[in-house]
Amino acid sequence: MFHLPIRPRRNRKSEGIRGLIRETSLSAANLIYPMFVQEGTENTPISSLPGCTRWSVAGLVEECRRLIDLGITTVDLFAVVPDDKKTPTADEAWNPDGIIPQAINALKNALPDITIMTDVALDPFNSDGHDGIVEFRPDGTYEILNDETIEILCRQALCHADAGADIISPSDMMDGRVAAIRATLDSEALDNVSILAYTAKYASALYGPFRGALESSPKTGDKKTYQMDPANIREALREADLDINEGADMLMVKPATLYLDVIAAMRAHCSLPIAAYHVSGEYLMLKSAAASGWIDERSATLETLLSIRRAGADMILTYAAPQAAQWLREQ
Ligand code: PBG
């Protein structure tokens, strides 16, 4: 026998002791489920995002009833917009009779306790597929207009808040939009509506399946003039300082697993609640590896979500939310 007075394995010797010293928890209350809603009565499974569906308003309500039973309190709504409603100025984004206000009304009527977050950005409504208004110049170059976009984002945020959204979640990465949205909401006595800012949203390769689900890919170029360079972390803290000063209630890092260092840095940097978005590509990497029999979906998914919590995220947006909540219940 070695003389080893210090043996860390003593703290791992039984499930009881492991439970006593466990540093991080994961529960359904930490999860937010991103959901897609479309006009009409069809619920359409999304082949590029297995397990996810483009819901009709009625289908959305029924699915949310199931989520609440699983302990998931909050959903994030994204609009599926038919091509003939997309315009260069994304006018449908703030239509009070549009699909998002309809969905909010129906959900709040049927399930008054549900927490509704809505995505604010122009891409599903913009015929150019960008998060902001695109100005094309005669010389063939183009620019995503910041301040003109913010005006429309404010109308969109107001439209969602008027319909009863609890949390407005701007995912566009325009400069100054949190302050502008806050001021707009406050001027309409909607000071109780929260803002979850996409603070450090990176120009990631992992959004492809989501853009397929919404048919919202940019028609020209990429999103690198507004989404962040994956090489940068100090810039994320600069964005955090801005969003805090502009009145954000919660900050987000997106994607999650490739950016755990950013989550941890932001956690150390400020006291606001932090969300992480486990995006479509990250979800599909797990799904496809599991479908091939290469990993165990359940343990790999729960380990992934736990790791995002360990890095410092309070809440996680994930397409795995219902399945994870079910697994956590069975544990
Ligand atoms: C766009 C938006 C995107 C996602 C959420 N909001 C895609 C993008 O920026 O192109 C991606 C989510 C995912 O991949 O799951 N405003």
UniProtKB/TrEMBL annotation:
Active site, renumbered: K201, K254
GO biological process: protoporphyrinogen IX biosynthetic process
EC number: 4.2.1.24
PROSITE patterns: D_ALA_DEHYDRATASE (PS00169)
Superkingdom of the source species: Bacteria
Pathway annotation from the record: Porphyrin-containing compound metabolism; protoporphyrin-IX biosynthesis; coproporphyrinogen-III from 5-aminolevulinate: step 1/4
UniProt binding sites for Mg(2+): E239
Keywords assigned: Heme biosynthesis, Lyase, Magnesium, Metal-binding, Porphyrin biosynthesis
GO molecular function terms listed in the Swiss-Prot or TrEMBL record: porphobilinogen synthase activity; zinc ion binding
Complexes and interactors: Homooctamer.
Protein name, as recorded: Delta-aminolevulinic acid dehydratase
